[in-house]
Amino acid sequence: MRAGNDDEGLRVYRSPGARDAIRASDAMMLEPVQLWLAADDEGLTDEQGRELGERFYATLYTALADDYRMVEEAGPETLRFEVALTSAEAADVKRDLITKAVAPARILSTAASKISGEPMFQGSATIEAKLSDASTGEVWVASIDRRVGGNAINTETLQSWGDVYNIMDLWAAAIRYKLCSARAAKTCEKP
């Protein structure tokens, strides 16, 4: 794996034959989202983990179904997409809202973020993803990415998991865009 560019994950692997394999495929086998959370992950119950996994799966399925025939079994010209949520942290909604809305709090939050390298009180998530040939298992693309919530105030950020939902939506749109671009389709929408 190499370090990703600005429009890629943090770490990326791409097989030399990936573009041709993606162009030749018309079907997608999306595996259920796995949760590989550390035992010391605080604040995420089993139920919340299941809910996040199911929501991310539904978001990915909807995005990919626009371009692929979605299947449940391996076959010719079929890609298998596997993704694992390896960390998810809810935002501290009250403190996050204050740091977004009140200028002195925003200045302090920004200063603390520069020191720690992480925005204060915002939700975050990390994934590992792999795209492979569904029949042979040959890995075409793999990526690791981590995202932290933004500074916008909207209905999602008023929920403790709102930042994580927004991150999952961004990943689904970015994955669809990357696959669309690899196929050289003319209808690709950059997230």
UniProtKB/TrEMBL annotation:
It comes from the Bacteria. InterPro entries: DUF3313. The keyword Lipoprotein applies. It holds the Pfam family DUF3313. Keywords: Lipoprotein. This is Putative lipoprotein. It comes from Pseudohaliea rubra DSM 19751.
